[in-house]
Amino acid sequence: MFHHKTNGFTLIELLVTLVIIALSVSLVGPNIFNWLASRQAASLKNEVASAIAVLPLKANRSATAMVIDDKNQLQLPEEIHIAFTRPIRVLANGYCEGDKIQIMVNDRRFTYRVRPPLCELEAITEA
Questions:
Q1: Is the separation of the CB atoms in 100 and 116 below 8 Å?
Q2: Residue 104 lies in a domain
């Protein structure tokens, strides 16, 4: 009897493996992109929160009141867009008189309340 020893995979085995991989990627791929977008938005929100949270300290150290009504005053990256309902006012003693802001990242909008006295951001859920 003749024994044929095979080294490697058959074409059918390779095709089945490629189909399984392609199906897995097509199911998981969109979720990964959504997850990455939400992580980017959270990172940018944290960057805005940090820039706003330091305002009372800056006002207190310089003993001057501050009025923030433009994102350039916060020295944020270009990809972050902020809309102010009213300017954020920080008194010379560091007390923050905030209002609402909207952060726009790509095509998504996030609304936050700037809470006194420390300029903390609180997410506002829109119904």
A1: no
A2: yes
Instruction: Determine, yes or no, domain membership for 99.
Output: yes
Q: How far from chain centre, in Å, is Cα 17?
A: 36
Q: How far apart are CA 97 and CA 114, in angstroms?
A: 8
Beta bridge partners of 90: 66, 96
Nearest of 108, 124, 103 to residue 45 by alpha carbon = 103
Whether the model pTM is above 0.85: no
- Res 89: pLDDT: 94
Does 5 reside within a domain? no
| Structural domains in the chain (count) | 1
Q: Which amino acid, residue 89?
A: R
